[in-house]
Amino acid sequence: MDALRAAIIDFRNSFADDDIFIEKLNQLREEQGPMVCKVIFQALTSLDIPPDDAVEYWQKILQHRQELGLFLARKVDLMTATSDFLRTSTNYLVNPRLVDVSTFERVIHETMYDGLTGLFNRPYFDEAFEQQVSLAKRYHTDLSVLFIDVDNFKEINDTLGHIVGDIALEKIGAIIKKAKRESDIAARFGGEEFVLLMPHTESFNAFIVGERIRKEVEQEEFSSHGLSYRLTISGGLASYPLNATDPKTLLHLADSATYLAKGAGKNNISFYKKDKRRYLRVKLSQPVLIKEMGFIDSRIYAGTSKDIGIGGILFENDAPLPIGAHIQISVPVNAESPLLLIGTIVRVEALGEKSYEIGMTISFKEMEKIANTEIAQFLREVV
After folding, report:
1. Which region, left, alpha or beta, applies to residue 195 given φ > 0 means left and ψ of -120 to 50 means alpha?
2. What pLDDT, on a 0 to 100 scale, did the predictor assign at position 277?
3. Which of 105, 150, 164, 264 could, after both became Cys, cross-link 160 (CB 3.0–4.6 A)?
């Protein structure tokens, strides 16, 4: 309910013209059903009217507004028509009194927003999350959730104090608010944890948003009381309907993916990836050469394969490659020609200092595309 009420109040603040405001409210009702009418009365009058009565009264108020306008030969605003109808035709406004709208909206603001960061608070997020998942199910759209945790934040509180820690959280909240898109819903989940809800967004586009936030936090210089320091964040991504179809599970998977990001050395964003061993894997300990695709001057890493299968390859490397990166791996299975594999990084786990275990799924479609390109280039050269 709070999410709907917030949307209605936002419409009220955004559209001074009552006709446009009413049009937006009716669109919202068409999208989300008759319960919207109940929330309209909660947002505009603070009255709790039963859903069936609210639907009936809303239609009658719109009609009453038109009739009043014709009778008075002038435009009548929605609140005037609402107050007059409820006072004269119902028992809901027996002893009405005027309340300044800024006072009412301040109370609403305090129930929806986190006092430190200015982002939405946990109760508001929980309700908005349920609502957005329901909408995604109804309209068959994607939705992603990014769980964010500030790396080593306890050290900041322990060494610099909680006041400095609060200032840091406030600044990170501002970075998230600035970096997110207008349609995204950002909230402080609790402590040093944040969550970003991204409607109509599949996992890779959500990853781009998460990376933008991560980089901006990494590049920011934090300072307080003459002290300067750096902070990083780790994030976990899960998407509807790819990973889960209910809010509780989806959030749990995003939280789990955050632990993957922490385990991969922190300061990165990890996708949730279910460990599925659908293919036979063979132990293969061989030196491999790894190169990130799409960059002409990208570094070539020397690693060691651990096992290989039709579905992918597992190898060790001295650097944490980014989740979602497209990688080319050369495996010298024989002296004449190496085995060339192309795929996407899906798992990174820190084994120790400068030692990472990395899992890559193999993309046969991409390998075929490159093979066709190389054959075409060869034919052009020999003709």
Report:
1. beta
2. 47
3. 164
DSSP readout, 330-371? EE-SSSS-PEEEEEEEEEEEEEETTEEEEEEEE-HHHHHHHH
Q: Which of 153, 175, 174 is nearest to 164 (CA)?
A: 153
For residue 296, what is the domain's CATH number? 2.40.10.220
Would the pLDDT of 247 be above 60? yes
- Rounded CA-CA distance 21/264 in Å is 49
Block residue for tokens 């609402």: 82
Q: Which amino acid is at 17?
A: D
Would strands 326-331 and 287-292 be described as parallel, antiparallel, or unpaired?
Answer: antiparallel
C-alpha span between 47 and 42 (Å, rounded): 5
Q: What is the pTM of this model?
A: 0.53
The CA dihedral of 276, 264, 249, 179, to the nearest 10 degrees, is -130
Question: Range of 147's domain?
Answer: 122-271
CA distance linking residue 8 with residue 24, whole number of Å: 9
Q: Same structural domain for residues 139 and 106?
A: no
Residue labelled with tokens 């949307």: 7
CA distance 65 to 25: 15
